[in-house]
Design a protein that fits this description.
Blueprint: H1 5-17, E1 19-22, H2 31-40, E2 46-52, H3 60-66, H4 71-74, E3 77-81, H5 86-98, E4 103-108, H6 113-116, H7 128-138, E5 145-153, H8 158-168, E6 175-181, H9 192-201, E7 206-209, H10 215-224, E8 230-233, H11 235-239, H12 243-247, H13 254-275, H14 279-293, H15 300-310, H16 313-325
Parallel strand pairs: 1-2, 1-8, 2-3, 3-4, 4-5, 5-6, 6-7, 7-8
Helix pairs in contact: 2-13, 7-8, 13-14, 14-15, 15-16
The protein binds flavin mononucleotide (FMN).
Residues 23-27, 50-51, 80, 107, 109, 149, 178, 186, 209-212, 233-236 line the site of flavin mononucleotide.
Length: 342
């Protein structure tokens, strides 16, 4: 690809300054996804793991599997906690320290009703005193660095603005802001004006997160917020795994891309076949990937319908093989919006 001088310089600038994080997407970006993605694609600098619930009972086995020490050697993996309980934080921190991790993330943004009703995730944002009391207890005792992932609020955009001066008092590693309300989940627009206000108030380094679905949306945000150097991408990468590389000016040609998608899917299928009991579970998990990934193909919607209707894993595999055999074209431009993922 021939890159003009000016454009080339701009890409070099982005390469050296933009750090890209893969957002945690529960049920998709699990440990297999992160490592397989990292082996095949490029552009992502850091992976935030989907949250673990650190109950006093149960869940420990899963947590240990997902956060094994060696997982942190190949990629920069940031484990995430969803909790409002100081003892759970200290227990999590101790486990991570023993496993060789140096950082974790606190999920203060999860919008799921069953989570927010328990004053966890975005459900804690309307309670600044509780957040402050927790930080007072946690921060002097933890060994890892802690970052926080937040929304603008649960119901009102001024909730985060009230919480920020509290966060400012503590040595938090960074703040990841998704500029929507909890009650919006992923519907409607991101509120960039409210994000701008948060930027003015926050003293910590801020990571922008939300609706970066193509190069154009990234560039527009970069232009509007030149002070932001760290970006978190979720559904945009799941739909187009080449997006981080494109942002960093390392695009591939189309035949290579098809090959990479096929290898990615084959590796994901192999790890699910090994890990899960029975083809129905494997099929479910792979369909969760295609829910996003089908967007990368020009005729992806039809493929996704066919795969969903397959019902049996053998039929699914045959349909996918047939699709690949037609050398399906990839989309030039992914013109997607948040509603495409609801
Ligand atoms: C199905 C799904 C699961 C998610 N799971 C998590 C999670 O475990 N932890 C978290 O902090 N955010 C989670 N998120 C939110 C994403 O990390 C991210 O903030 C959100 O998708 C907005 O970014 P995007 O527009 O780049 O996708 C989830 C989002 C979706 C759609």
């Amino acid at each position: 690809m021939c890159i003009g001088n000016e454009f080339g310089k701009r890409l070099d600038y982005m390469k050296s300054t933009s750090q890209l994080y893969l957002a945690p997407i529960q049920g998709v970006t699990n440990e297999g996804y992160q490592t397989i993605y990292h082996d095949l694609f490029s552009g992502i600098d850091c992976y935030v793991a989907p949250f673990v619930k650190v109950g006093m009972q149960g869940k420990r086995k899963n947590r240990k599997k997902a956060l094994l020490p060696e997982r942190n050697e190949k990629i920069r993996l940031i484990p995430q906690i969803l909790s409002n309980n100081v003892a759970e934080f200290l227990q999590f921190d101790q486990y991570l320290q023993d496993a060789g991790y140096q950082e974790f993330n606190w999920n203060l943004g999860c919008p799921m009703r069953m989570v927010t009703l328990k004053k966890r995730g975005a459900g804690l944002l309307p309670y600044p005193e509780q957040i402050e009391a927790m930080l007072d207890h946690i921060m002097p005792k933890i060994h890892c660095q802690m970052s926080v992932k937040v929304r603008l609020g649960l119901k009102h955009a001024d909730e985060l603005l009230t919480v920020l001066p509290i966060l400012n008092r503590f040595p938090i590693q960074m703040l990841i802001i998704h500029p929507r309300l909890g009650q919006q989940a992923y519907a409607g627009q991101v509120d960039l004006q409210a994000f701008e206000e948060c930027l003015r108030t926050a003293k910590h380094s801020v990571v922008y997160n939300g609706d970066i679905f193509n190069l154009e949306s990234f560039r527009a945000l970069q232009k509007r917020f030149p002070q932001i150097k760290h970006w978190m991408l979720g559904r945009g990468v799941l739909a187009n795994p080449f997006l981080p590389a494109q942002i960093k000016g390392e695009d591939k040609d189309k035949s290579e891309k098809l090959e990479m998608i096929m290898r990615f899917h084959a590796a994901m299928a192999a790890q699910y076949e090994e890990k899960l009991s029975g083809p129905a579970h494997v099929l479910d998990k792979l369909l969760a990937i295609w829910f996003y990934l089908h967007h990368v193909f020009a005729d992806g919607a039809a493929l996704y319908r066919q795969l969903k209707k397959a019902k049996k894993y053998e039929v699914y595999k045959a349909r996918l093989d047939h699709f690949y055999s037609t050398t399906p074209p990839l989309r030039e431009h992914l013109n997607i919006v948040s509603e495409d993922f609801i």
